[in-house]
Amino acid sequence: MEDLFLYSKKILLVDDEPELLRLVTDILLDDGFRNIIEADTVRTGLISARQDKPDLAILDVMLPDGDGFALMKELRTFTNIPIIFLTAKDEAADKLAGLGLGADDYVIKPFLPQELLLRVHAVLRRCYKADSFILELEGCTIDFSRAEVNKNGTIIPLTAKEHTLLQTLSRSEGRIVSIDALCEALWGDNPFGYENSLNAHIRRIREKIETDPSKPVSLITIKGLGYKLNARK
Amino acid sequence: MKIFSKYISKYLLSYIGLILILVVLDIAAFVFTFYNAVSKNFGNSSPQNTLEEVAESSSADGITNDAERMLVSNSLWAMYLNAEGSCNWTVNLPEEIPTEYTIQDIAVFSKGYLKDYPVFVWSDENGLLVIGYPKNSYMKITSNYYPIDIFRKILIFFLGIFVFDLTVLFLAYSYSKVQIGKKTEPIISSITALSEGKCISLNLNGELSEIADSINKAAGIISRQNTARANWISGVSHDIRTPLSMIMGYAERIANDQNACNQIKEQAACISRQSVKIKELVQDLNLVSKLEYEMQPLQKENIRISKLLRSYAIDLINSGLPEIYSLEVVISPGSENSEIDCDAKLIARAVNNLVQNSIHSNPKGCTIILALQITLQAAKEKLLLTIQDDGIGISAEKLEELKNKPHYMESTDDRLDLRHGLGLLLVRQIVNAHNGTMEIESKLGEGYKTDIYFPYTAKP
Questions:
Q1: Contacts of residue B373 in chain A, CB cutoff 8 Å?
Q2: Could you read off the pLDDT of B275-318 as tens digits, one per residue?
Q3: Residue of B238, B313, B337 lying closest to A225 (CB–CB)
Q4: Burial grade of A7 (CB within 10 A; 0-12, 13-18, 19 or more)
Q5: Is B270's Cβ below 8 Å from some Cβ in A?
Q6: ipTM for the whole predicted complex goes beyond 0.85
Q7: Which of the following CATH numbers is that of domain A2-130: 3.30.420.240, 3.30.1440.10, 3.90.226.10, 3.40.50.2300?
């Protein structure tokens, strides 16, 4: 469905453990990805990245000729592709999160295949979703490039805040986005006490996108947690 | 510190006791020695008695033979002076003693010596009886007059001296107690810290520096051992991760393989489920050992717990929490903006362990509530985080066991019936690391509830 375009993305895998390399490749192939490039050292990883121009890199932290962090720094000199780390250490995860090296996500070994796939999908969706400016909802269409809602032929403009809010929700389409994340997207850091304003914005968006704003089907409230935007099935 | 005060007090008490015993002994020795000396006399009785005896057996006219013999045998002499100052009679009188006396002569010798002979006098209606003792037999104190006030004051004086001495002793005692306390306090506190497994480094000069060195050495050994143990656990858990990834990955693939028969799929699913358990164990083990040996520095920042709970819950739901479980987050209005200084990852880990416990023990599904509120505990404001399910709960015995049975990670016992499972232990360690407290409530069939209280001060 929605994610089909993701499967055409090219993924670079760098891991020195041939069996693990094989396993991750199998997991990705099983899921539907078609373009997997394998490398087992920092050196070959860099060569592959330059030659094949992958859309996503999955890097092991421990490599025979250096570590994944060094490889990432090298990669960043010529490409901005999303990077997911595979790590066998909690500390490495801490380092990634703490230093803000610019990695997009990390998966701690041991991991279940779904876990890895979930992160790969999320990262790809987040990074390449901007490609599609049109989001189809039940009963209307949102055109992000024009900040407009097309409801049965009627064009309704979106305010800047509504646009940001819908974009944040659409990036995690089908999944819950927390009140906090939405407030942060709208008002920046430390958005204390903005919940009421958020509710007001949500109400106005519903009037624009829902067929029956009192019984929302696209923009769902998840009580106590946040909101979820459902695309048309 | 207290221990040492007691120790010192005990020794001081026995010291004072010893002084008292010595004083008593001294007095006894004194009395014994001088009683003999005082009671030792020339003749059989004291000069006073001899005088009385002689006075009775003599008169102005003469002396009985018995008395005379007694005087001679004791090498004493005697004379009787009449009112005119001349001798009525004499016994054994040395040659140098005159027989005529003026009133001045008598006044001079009567209380003291006559030609260096100590003399004792007895007066009756006719004259004066004088008994002389050999030279150097008795010492007479002739100038024995003191102001009467002195004698009145002497009691107060002795009492004063006694009190003064006691005060000086007590001051010396207090001073040495404080001094020893000061010097030994760091030693005691570091030994206490050491016994609690904390890292210490003691810096002392002077006489006690050797003790400090030994303690530092011991602390070094313990800390090296702890580091080695934590590293060992961390190494093992690290090395297990890659192989386990393989097992988990392929088991899952087989379980989802369209071509495999159902039996094989089920078996693979079982392998997969069990590997997940090993994975959780490995992750917990590493963190538990690091917290246990204080190898995990807390990365504390001010965190809004409400936000943390929501983000945790959303991650869990988004990652595909089965429909049979419902997860709710209930934040009381007052606690929405409550921040505490904590390690967000650890708090989320603790919450996750409790939620996973609820999920694992209720395979048929349940409602899990994460609640946050501000409450009073022992008159202090606390942030209360409650993780509660409405599942099958546990029996009273199990609950008791959970609360009281020692965990194998924390026991040096050889017993085999120690508590297992690291999940709850980790929660408790995390709560402790944040100075929080934790209470578990559960009844069979009535769900399971964990209350975690964090110290909290409201921001203005």
A1: none
A2: 888 888 888 888 888 787 777 778 888 888 998 999 899 988 88
A3: B313
A4: middle
A5: no
A6: no
A7: 3.40.50.2300
